[in-house]
Amino acid sequence: MAGARFLQSFKLTIIGDPAVGKTSLISKFTKGFAPNKYLITIGVHITTYQTEVNTKKINLSIFDIAGQSKYHLARKQFFSGSNGALALFDLTSPQSLESLNTWINELRESNDPNIPVIVLGNKSDLKQKVDLDDINKVLAEINVSQDRFLKTSALDGSNVKKAFQQISSVIMGQYGSVNGKKKSIE
């Protein structure tokens, strides 16, 4: 196709307990604002977003996975085919940090065990109830390096763009055109 550019598509999965801010984080990144009320995700919500990594345009299919335990059995089918993940916990909820091990294990069982993961401690605008030692312990347990951890706030936007840029760069580095699907765009 003359004059066409190629856009690689990747599946990015957002995981974590209910109410950690997954939907708000996606909204802040893709729309520039976070919803002013809690929106429950039923099953999965898919958002597509075009971005650039090192001057290459990519299309992210962002899968916002419901955190409620009643969706546990359906999650694995939504995890399948993911090229990367943002794993969120709430900095005001130690329980949500402890749950990351389960989320990451389920994700890796349904995918390449080396799937790129960035861990996000969300709600950095609030008083933190999770300390750095506990965060580092969980990062070691789930085999995620400290340079793949960020504190974010969907409310004030802190590190939201950086998180999506970082995971997009890691995905491009790991999968590039090997597993990503190329689509022609005008």
Order of helices and strands: EHEEHEHHEHEHE
How many domains? Answer: 1
**Cα distance spanning the termini:** 9 Å
How would you sum up the major sheet?
A: 7 strands, mixed
Q: Find the CATH superfamily.
A: P-loop containing nucleotide triphosphate hydrolases
Shape call: globular
Mean pLDDT: 84
Top CATH class: Alpha Beta
Number of helices: 6
- Fraction of residues in helices? 25-40%
Strand content: 25-35%
Fold-level CATH name: Rossmann fold
CATH-derived architecture: 3-Layer(aba) Sandwich
User: So what's the oligomer here?
Assistant: single chain
Helix and strand content put the structural class at: alpha/beta
Number of strands: 7
Which value, in Å, is the CA radius of gyration?
16 Å
Question: Uncertain regions: pLDDT < 50 for 5+ in a row?
Answer: 178-186
Would you kindly provide a written description of the structure presented here, covering whatever features stand out?
The chain is an alpha/beta fold and 186 residues long. The chain has a single domain, classed as Rossmann fold (3-Layer(aba) Sandwich). It contains six helices and seven strands, in the order βαββαβααβαβαβ. Strands 1, 2, 3, 4, 5, 6 and 7 form a seven-stranded mixed β-sheet that branches. A hairpin with a 2-residue loop joins strand 2 and strand 3. The longest helix has 20 residues. The C terminus is likely disordered.
